[in-house]
Design brief:
alpha+beta, four-stranded antiparallel beta sheet, 28 helices, about 35% helix, 45 strands
């Protein structure tokens, strides 16, 4: 997070993004650039001074003393940026200028074009050099569009107790040689008390600004305006205009606002003794008196900083008072002299010691940066909702292993699917608009969002994930649509090439949870759950029933208001309202007896910020009897403040203030209403999945010596029985529609929380690292395998090409029967021989590495957020295996609770304990059935769902947990594959990072293959001793062996090794189609979930079969094949997570009466 700076000033780019110029605590001038859609954090610090200082002051010791920036004001989208910098070195000041910088092309921020402006003030006949001790007190830059005016104030007698000022302006008629010209102040001012700003009185000659100056000398005070020079006679001093305040009031702060109509004239605003005074640009003649336009005896008192701006017909004045409170007032330019036309000033932020505001000209959003007690923030008020948002400025972490920062957020996951196939659509451009002007994270990139659309692409899983920080219960409503090929007018609701927008309401679930708390008993029953699973009552002890009844009624009113506003906004979605001008003399009329009297009508966000300052208030939700509009009303110190509740955002934000009656802090209310992950349940699921993989890995290690014999037996079984599949025709699936094998995304309630782990993995994979190193590779071990790969390559390539053209390309449009028949027609004895020869050789290659297998699973891993989260939950270091198990456990637990009403593996249950204490994979498999095999079977003819405690149900529950593991495993593989490719494309690839990615791919493949490692665990499809079942198991084992060996060859320089592994993958993929298809056929029955699982298995095998074609292809075909392979693997993952849900939903008769699958041999 960007820490407080010595001084700062904010400007904006043409796109409405922020530029924060600041002097660091080390005396360096930086610009902090806001970048939308480019980086994860969104802010980049660029030094503007370091290169110049190191070159111009090689002896060191030089620092930036002060600076000034300005931006051309008025009409026009492009507004040039001027920068001035004062460097202090060896006790003297040096001025540097950089003018006319673009506000759209920011390349100058990376190589600042400075021009030196050494002191050279002209005397009567010659230029005078700078004195030995020369101190520049301040610099001012014009905002005018018709010239560059620069003014520098120098201390005349810096050693004096009260040094006075000497003023100069910089003549730029020779741009490469700026000339200092003396300017008479027109009065004496003490350097410590004066304030000045550039501006221009109406009807002044073009190109000549003037200077407004206020300050003191002794007990006297002055407020003057003086042109920089006399345009008619530059040698003569310009005339001074003395400006007065009523009653001789002493000015406290001044600010000039350029008129938006573009004439470069400025209105002057002055704060004095609790009132705001106005000098119109054409009313600034000598002895002119300011007009009071607003007053607030306390808030507007002791103002030390004042800012003003006019934008699109609206003038805004910001101030920072002596109590460190930020306030603002706004008014339409046609009503400046009407006090009732100005907004009601309220404290927006407290505890502020410095600020810099501007009007976001893209969205007309009130924006300012401020130093607060919590650090430097950017605060923005959205015109369409009236609400404020605030953000810290996040910078890239100095250390990737540092602890994560925790914050509350709304997370929304948008999934884009093909209209024709239902498949998830990767790389599709989505257009997002937002009701709130704020910043969010979209697919791990920082975006500034608002009513103007931004475009983002779906990730490899077809998703767009939006994370929005929240300090209350307000979340931005989004409108999402497929982006049209050509931009269309903003008013268009549906555009050619695009789609109709879909409205997204992230806060709906939290709001409904709160709306349910509409009785005293429900409020008393509300709980707050901690991360460790412990619970506390939401309502503190001692709160009366009467108070709770009032809160419950307020919740009911908010719910009613929400329904009414929702109906209005649904008719015209995303249509924000322009803030109504606030008037203190015509407040709303309320029927309630306790709300009689005039109310100050405020913007809703301003009132909420006032309440956030800690002021004591009584709140109510009431209907304006005259206008039939809901209002939020606060009684503060006997005064009524009312704000309209006319947006869903405003109503959501009001929720936290309803609980003001029971003194519940905002954080406590959010904690009560946030989504409950149930971390302890997730950890149990994590341990169950981890136990399975560790036992499987151990069993796999022990079985390698027998694997060669088992593989030969399985392949011999296929070749012995191959004749019965020649020309096979599959019947019994004639009703399977085309497209049944389309993988659709799994949609369920609270899918975004369920994908929390996957989301952070995708965002942090690029920064993952491990302190443990993998031993060196052994190239000679692959020599024999390489020779075999060359020998079998042609056979496999031909088969892969046939598989791609006949099966993969039309995969989603073919009936399942045709898919199976085509595959059987391609796979023959020669292909199985090729796979067998290579796999047998691979088992010899793996021998030297077996002892390192379990250690690889336990390698410690540092990955942003997830390592920290795991340590918070368990107190332990995250390992490579823990990462996958945690990411898989989150959706498995969340999805299980939604489907079943409880965690899939309840803590303390006998089944869970047996699984966690299992010593072999067989013990783990049988753990759920130790009791159910002795229990009664569901009665015949039952149409109920799976009976609680039945063996079938427990198998399905195991399948659900490991299916999510398979889904997350494929995600791991795909993300790690993409990241690994990006690292390889770097000029100097990080070899350690490549090994970490290869390890994650292998761990992902372990989890992805979980449903096939123990077939009997999921469904009863015949004796596992059958050759086709054995063949399936052995091929899975071969895949795990290959993936494990590849880790040790990640950074090989050999061109043969990648080709060898690609050949192996293709041979496994093609051969794997045999058991995948034959198993259900030979079983003679096909239940719905078995059909779906078979489709998933086919997709996985086809993805593997593309490895060799991808290895031999050249761009762009290589990228096309890679994308197709990833899509097929992800389809497999989605199906493995989805088919257990189908299984659980199957009625009793469907489980006993599966359709027969007939096989007819022979024929064409």
């Amino acid at each position: 997070i960007l820490q407080p700076q010595k001084a700062f000033q904010a400007l904006q780019t043409q796109a409405g993004l922020s530029l924060l110029f600041a002097i660091s605590t080390g005396g360096e001038l930086n610009v902090v650039v806001e970048e939308s859609g480019k980086t994860q954090h969104g802010w980049a610090v660029r030094s503007l001074s370091s290169a110049l200082i190191s070159k111009s002051f090689p002896d060191g010791g030089a620092t930036v003393r002060t600076f000034a920036v300005s931006q051309a004001a008025g009409k026009g989208s492009r507004r040039e940026i001027h920068v001035a910098m004062v460097v202090e070195a060896a006790g003297s000041s040096h001025l540097y200028l950089s003018l006319r910088n673009s506000d759209s092309d920011l390349s100058w921020t990376q190589d600042m074009p400075w021009v030196a402006a050494p002191f050279n003030a002209a005397g009567a006949r010659r230029a005078a050099g700078a004195p030995s001790s020369f101190h520049i007190a301040g610099v001012m830059l014009t905002k005018a569009t018709d010239g560059e005016m620069i003014v520098a104030d120098v201390t005349r007698n810096p050693a004096a107790a009260r040094p006075l000022l000497q003023r100069y302006w910089i003549d730029l008629s020779s741009p490469g040689a700026p000339l200092w010209v003396k300017h008479a102040l027109g009065a004496d001012f003490e350097a410590s008390t004066y304030q000045s700003c550039l501006g221009r009185r109406a009807n002044e000659p073009a190109g000549v600004d003037g200077i407004y100056t206020m300050g003191k000398v002794g007990d006297g005070s002055q407020l003057i305006y003086r042109p920089i020079y006399n345009v008619f006679d530059p040698a003569a001093p310009p005339l001074v205009s003395r400006l007065r305040l009523p009653g001789g009031l002493v000015p406290e702060a001044i600010a000039a606002a350029h008129r938006f109509k573009g004439d470069n004239a400025t209105d002057l605003y002055v704060m004095a003794k609790g009132s705001l005074f106005y000098f119109a640009a054409d009313a600034q003649q000598d002895e002119a008196t300011g007009v009071a336009v607003a007053e607030h005896p306390s808030l507007l008192a002791g103002v030390r900083k004042l800012f003003a701006a006019e934008e699109a017909g609206e003038v805004t004045v910001w101030g920072l008072n002596g109590s460190d409170e930020v306030f603002y007032l706004s008014c339409h330019t046609t009503g400046i002299l009407d006090q009732s036309a100005w907004s009601v000033p309220l404290p927006i932020y407290t505890g502020v010691d410095a600020m810099s505001p501007y009007m976001d000209r893209r969205h007309c959003a009130n924006t300012f940066f401020a130093h607060t007690g919590s650090g430097l923030i950017k605060a923005t008020k959205t015109p369409a909702t009236g609400l404020w948002t605030r953000r810290h400025l996040h910078l890239p972490a100095k250390e990737l292993t540092q602890d994560a920062r925790e914050f509350k957020s709304f997370t929304t996951e948008v999934t884009v699917t093909s209209k024709d196939t239902g498949e998830v659509a990767a790389g599709v451009e989505v257009e997002l608009t937002a009701t709130t002007v704020t910043s969010v994270s979209i697919n791990h990139l920082y975006y500034a969002v608002g009513p103007q659309p931004v475009r983002v692409k779906t990730d490899s899983q077809g998703t767009v994930t939006i994370v929005e920080q929240t300090h209350d219960l307000v979340a931005t409503r989004f409108s999402a649509a497929i982006a049209p090929a050509v931009a269309a007018p903003p008013a268009s609701r549906r555009r050619p090439g695009g789609s109709a927008p879909v409205e997204i309401r992230p806060m709906a679930a939290a709001f409904q949870r709160n709306a349910a708390l509409n009785t005293v008993d429900k409020l008393k029953g509300a709980k707050v759950q901690e991360m460790d699973g412990s619970e506390q009552p939401f309502v503190p002890a001692g709160i009366s029933d009467d108070t709770l009844d009032q809160v419950a009624k307020l919740n009911g009113k908010l719910n009613t208001a929400s329904q009414e506003v929702s109906e209005r906004q649904s008719a015209a979605p995303m249509q924000g309202r322009r803030l109504a001008r606030t008037r203190t003399h015509s407040g709303p009329c309320f029927a309630e007896a306790h709300l009689q009297g005039s109310a100050f009508l405020c913007d809703i966000g301003d009132l909420f910020r006032y309440l956030a300052s800690g002021i004591e208030a009584m709140v109510d939700i009431v209907m304006d009897a005259a206008e039939k509009v809901w209002h939020f009303v606060a009684n503060i110190g006997g005064k009524l403040f009312a704000a309209v509740l006319d947006t869903l955002e405003a109503i959501g934000s009001a929720v936290v203030w309803v609980y003001n009656e029971i003194k519940a802090a905002i954080e406590w209310v959010i904690k009560m209403l946030e989504f409950l992950f149930g971390w302890q349940d997730i950890l149990v699921t994590h341990r169950v999945i981890k136990k399975f993989i560790m036992l499987t890995a151990a069993d796999f290690t022990k079985s390698i010596p027998e694997a060669k014999a088992a593989l030969k037996h399985a392949c011999d079984g296929f070749k012995t029985n191959i004749d019965q599949f020649t020309g096979l025709k599959v019947k019994g699936l004639d009703q399977t529609p085309a497209g049944a094998n389309k993988s659709k995304a799994i949609h369920h309630k609270d899918s975004a929380p369920g994908n929390t782990g996957a989301h952070h993995f995708k965002g942090g994979a690029r920064q993952a690292s491990s302190p443990d190193k993998v031993p060196g590779k052994h190239p000679s071990l692959l020599d024999a395998l390489g020779d075999l790969a060359k020998k079998e390559g042609d056979t496999l390539s031909r088969a892969a090409d046939e598989m791609k053209t006949q099966v993969i390309d039309p995969f989603t449009s073919l009936p399942l029967t045709i898919v199976m028949e085509r595959i059987i027609g391609i796979v023959g004895e020669a292909l199985v021989d090729s796979m067998e020869n290579m796999a047998l050789e691979l088992f010899d290659v793996v021998a030297p590495f077996v002892d390192q297998l379990l250690g690889t699973l336990d390698r410690p891993l540092d990955i942003p957020v997830l390592t920290w989260l795991y340590k918070q939950l368990t107190g332990e270091q995250l390992s490579v295996l823990d990462l996958l198990c945690l990411v898989a456990a989150i959706p498995a637990t969340v999805g299980g609770k939604i489907a079943l009403g409880h965690a899939p593996f309840p803590k303390g249950s006998s089944v869970t304990e047996r699984m966690l204490n299992a010593e072999t994979i067989r013990d783990w498999n049988n753990a759920p059935f130790a009791e159910t095999r002795r229990s009664a079977v569901a009665p015949p003819g039952s149409e109920a769902g799976l009976r609680a405690g039945s063996e079938d149900r427990d198998k399905a529950m195991q399948a659900l947990a490991l299916g999510f593991g398979a889904l997350l495993g494929t995600l791991f593989e795909s993300v790690a594959t993409v990241v690994q490719a990006e690292i390889r494309d770097e000029p100097v690839p990080d070899e350690d990072a490549l090994v970490v990615m290869q390890t994650l791919k292998w761990i992902g493949s372990m989890a992805a293959s979980a449903p096939s490692l123990s077939p009997n665990m999921f469904d009863d499809m015949g004796d596992s001793s059958k050759w086709y079942s054995s063949m399936g198991k052995i091929l899975t084992t071969v895949g795990k062996v290959q993936g494990f060996v590849q880790i040790f060859y990640t950074n090989t320089d050999s061109e043969v090794v990648p080709w060898v592994f690609a050949t192996l993958s293709t041979s496994r993929g093609v051969a794997g189609l045999v058991p995948t298809i034959v198993r259900p056929i030979m079983g003679g029955q096909l239940r719905a979930h078995v059909v779906i699982k078979t489709i998933g298995g086919i997709a996985s095998c086809l993805g593997g079969a593309l490895s060799l074609p991808q290895q031999t292809a050249v761009p762009p075909e290589e990228q096309t094949l890679a994308a197709a392979g990833i899509a097929l693997e992800l389809s497999y993952g989605v199906i493995m997570a989805g088919y257990p849900l189908v299984w659980l939903a199957e009625p009793g008769d469907a489980r006993r009466k599966a359709s027969a699958l007939a096989i007819r041999r022979g024929g064409s």
